[in-house]
Design a protein that fits this description.
The protein is mainly beta and 135 residues long. It has one domain. Helices cover 10% and strands 27% of the residues. The protein has 1 helix and 5 strands, in the order H-E-E-E-E-E. Strands 1, 2, 3, 4 and 5 form a 5-stranded antiparallel β-sheet that branches. The longest helix is centred in the N-terminal third of the chain and has 14 residues.
Length: 135
């Protein structure tokens, strides 16, 4: 798979903010639950165990602007483009394919209705847009 250039990543960020095909997730430098290692920033990651049923497992998990409350452990915050979203209950989603576009930075997200639980994150390493205040 091809790694996107910074210009292409910026274009993809604009695209997913407009079409809503994004999620937030926590990781440890791309490593997630049970040690699964995501591809580098700007490269698509595929779920090796994809299952479209709306249950946990069988996909890449995270939160959308409308789903919140599910956070795995991890010091990093990843903003990702997604494909083939399946909603799991009211709190999380999973997808077949995702690409980390930003790590420890967030773009300005309009109409955020979820929550952003950053407990356990390395807050010194995370850059949030001015409109998000950490209390």
């Amino acid at each position: 798979m091809r790694l996107l250039s910074q210009k292409e990543i910026n274009q993809k960020i604009d695209e997913v903010l407009k079409n809503g095909m994004w999620m937030l997730r926590r990781s440890n430098n791309g490593k997630s639950y049970k040690g699964f290692q995501w591809r580098p920033v700007g490269e698509w990651t595929e779920a090796p165990d994809w299952d479209p049923l709306p249950i946990c497992g069988g996909g890449l998990h995270g939160n959308t602007k409308n789903c919140s409350g599910f956070w795995c452990d991890g010091k990093d915050l990843d903003f990702c483009a997604v494909e083939n979203i399946v909603k799991i209950g009211s709190e999380k989603i999973k997808c077949q394919r995702a690409m980390v576009l930003l790590r420890n930075r967030l773009p300005k997200i309009d109409k955020w209705t979820g929550s952003l639980d950053l407990r356990g994150c390395d807050l010194k390493g995370i850059t949030l847009p001015e409109r998000y205040k950490i209390l």
